[in-house]
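Folding Query — how this chain folds
Tokens — whole-number codes for backbone shape
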Amino acid sequence: MSSDSRIRRWLQERPWPVSVRCDGKTIVRLTSKNTRWSQAETAMTMLGCHTAEALNEAGEILRVIEIDSPVQTVEAVAEETAEQKELLLPESWPEGEQAQLARIIVAASDRAAFRHERAWGKAFETVQHVVSEYKDMLKLVLDRLTQSEQIRLDSIEAREVAADDALELAHDTARASNGGGGSAEALLGTVAQGALLRMAGPTPQPKKEGA
């Protein structure tokens, strides 16, 4: 495609321009004649225009064209697109960039692993603390239960010893009374009753009137 045909096609694109500015300086105005496209194209060629700007009535830029830029065929555009896609592949990156990316990925993985490890460590410490407190509380309860049971067993044992002592004393007293002609049965009953009263504890005294 020649440069002239490119300019003609560019001029005829819609919206149609009212004027064309060449290289940011000279203004080429388009007439209303049927030959306006060829006239504008000839004027731009004679001015040696390199960059053209299509303008509307308000002087606003509609589009721009680089006249000296090479024309790309469909095959050239496809080849350039393929090259750009290839640049996006990691295999095409320079070795230094690959190494830098690898270091960034490794550092991010290390930070994530460190945060994960810290979270699990804090959770484990919390569980350990709760278990330790539960063990201490359980040990305290068991110790108190053991002490109460030991006190109860000691009390039972003391009563059994007191009962044995009372019976032995009654037998000894009975044997001694046989030599004096007294009634052994009556004496034994009196001693046993006294022993049982001592085991049961002191008898509560009635309250006095007015007290």
Remarks:
- The radius of gyration is 59 Å.
